[in-house]
Amino acid sequence: MKPLDRKWVWLWSALLLVVLLVLPFLVKNYRVFQFNLVLVYAIAILGLNMLTGFNGQISLGHGAFYAFGAYTAAILMDKLGVPYWATLPAAFVVCFVFGFLVGFPALRLAGHYLALATFALALAVPQLLKYKHIEHLTGGVQGIVLNKPEPPFDFRFLDQPFSADRWLYYFSLAVAGLMFLIAWNLLRGRVGRALIAVRDHPIAATAMGINLPVFKSLTFGTSAGITGLAGALGAIVVAFVSPDSFTVNLSIFLLVGVVVGGLASIPGAIFGGIFIQFVPNIADEISKSAPAAIYGILLIGFMYLLPTGVMGGLYKVWARLRAKTAG
Amino acid sequence: MRLKSIALAIVSLTALTVGTSALAQKKYDIGATDKEIKIGGISPYSGPASAYGAIGKAITAYFAKVNAEGGINGRKLTFISLDDGYNPAKTVEQARKLVEEEEVLFIFNTLGTPPNSAIHKYMNSKKTPQLFVATGATKWGDPKNFPWTMGWQPNYQSESKVFAAHLLENKPNAKVAILYQNDDYGKDYLKGFEDGLGDKAKSMIVSKISYEVTDPTIDSQMVSLKATGADTFFNITTPKFAAQAIKKAAEIGWKPTHYLNSVSASVGSVMNPAGPENGVGIYTASYLKDPTDPQFQKGKEWDDWLAWMTKYQPKGDIKDVNNVYGYTVAQGLVQVLKQAGDNLTRENIMKQAASLEMTLPMLLPGINVKTGPDDFYPIQREQLARFDGKTWQLFGKVYGR
What we know:
The complex is a heterodimer. By secondary structure, chain A is an all-alpha fold. Chain A has 14 helices and 4 strands. Chain A has one domain (27-326): ABC transporter involved in vitamin B12 uptake, BtuC (Orthogonal Bundle). Chain A has helices at residues 2-26, 29-54, 62-80, 84-106, 111-128, 135-138, 164-187, 190-200, 202-207, 212-238, 248-261, 268-286, 291-305, 309-326; strands at 144-145, 156-157, 160-161, 240-241. In chain A, the strands form 2 sheets. Chain A has a two-stranded antiparallel ribbon. Chain A has a two-stranded antiparallel ribbon with strand order 2-3. The longest helix of chain A has 27 residues, at 212-238. By secondary structure, chain B is of the alpha/beta class. Chain B has helices at residues 2-23, 53-68, 88-101, 113-125, 156-170, 184-197, 201-204, 219-227, 239-251, 267-274, 299-312, 321-340, 346-353; strands at residues 27-28, 36-43, 76-83, 106-108, 130-131, 176-181, 205-211, 232-236, 257-260, 283-286, 343-344, 357-358, 369-370, 382-387, 392-399. Chain B is globular. Classes of the chains: A mainly alpha, B alpha/beta.
């Protein structure tokens, strides 16, 4: 049974990889742009999931870190002429430090109080970005318009040109792949177990020698860093940042993505990204009068059918299939 | 059998030549055919600015009327209107959907300064018209750098020029104090006012104080403005602050000649909260017929509007000026498309939009729509109105170009 399993896993992975690589040439540029956004949101949700899913800290303010990352990238590209790829690590570092500093006092705030504190952050950020003394950097309410990075070389495939969007797709895919790989290695080992222990029973975790304050702050920092990096990538993909792009809704949508994808599930982030990217569009197509209400109904329906998120549902189906074949 | 196929070939050949000769006079870009014109729109149907979603619905309803009456030159208007929730990142996505997937001929009346800024460069690089945008920023009329973008309503600068002209005529030695919101909108108004006063700006303006949209109140600003001894006040504020300013001025006993920007000319959300008795005598400017004003609730123009509202927009609020706005801007577009005739290329759409001269039924008497190759500001005239404690009373002449 076992060797067969492995062979199948390899085969499916290879097939998935081929599909992912060919995909942008099968659809229009606009769709590629949407896929790019899915990847961006998936990375942001991965960051938040690390904090909320694995470590049990609820943040309603990750939109703020996303905004910070986006602005870091935009200002570096616009004012200092830094190449786009170099802004990603910068955004990670800036948001890590910022998240660590926010996470430190947040240690004293447990559960719902932390949620409120981070919510305040999400509310404040769009207004702070308009602050006049930093307007020469942030562009104030107008925001900053960026240039899309051109693809490094030209070719055609399946009669489609290698456009800026398609290049960004591969770039985002590589970044997302790297982030998921890092998260996978981090969360499935000693660190991941420690995070879950802190979530499930902080006192027991301390007794076992886990330094609670350091772990919680570092998790907050890393989570903010990854979400910030997603923000930077998002700024490059959309080629525009402005305070109105990062309202409190964004933070809430990210949390929706985490829950829909599946709490404490790494691949779940991808489904979360797909959900927050496409479901509002579906709602808009159904009704112009009340798109938000339709969205709400879809969300409730979704949570009713898959109460543990997409990954939770998939695991359940998988377990049932295994039980059947074994039995 | 063979004869039949030969005959068929001949017939189809003739049809082809006839077809091509007819086609020679017609020119189309993507989004236009013999049967339809595809138009894209982006409105905030959800989110913080969803009150403006009424405009998108009104436009849809007006196009339904046009189609029911046979379309334009035999072509139906297909209006694909999407929701961006006033989120610029979403606006980019929706604009790309409209241009690249829906393949519209052009995008029409997208709402809000930040959403339009987000797609400004994109639309121009795609050489696809971004026509009659629903924002008052001055930057939409820049045909040299952005030949594919055009505004619609009077921009902030033209409006403050109207105030400046009125002030120069009636109170040439006024001492003016200005309160403005410290962002593009506030600065746009300020610049127009200073330009309007011209050489006299330096001597007439005694004080300019700004506030942040994040400030809780503007009480201290009002006290300092009063202390300058100014006898005229130009109030460049958004609704919440406008109400505060009107109230505070009354509290501290400052009674200047008061100009209020049209952004905050709402009776319901500004004048009443400020205390209607405190607002008596304040001036503002407008260009659309207010559907709540009894003097406009008669005549053919009103009847037509009401008939359209009842038949095509029955869910809309008769009192909502956004319905008047949507009705009027849709009529403006219909004129552009009529002028374009069978030459429905993107270039010709912009060319026709830039050669308009007309009046529309729900614009105030004397207000016109006028554009030229170097003039991408369709509506620039406005009329002043004075608050009588209940409503805005129009008076005097029409100002502007």
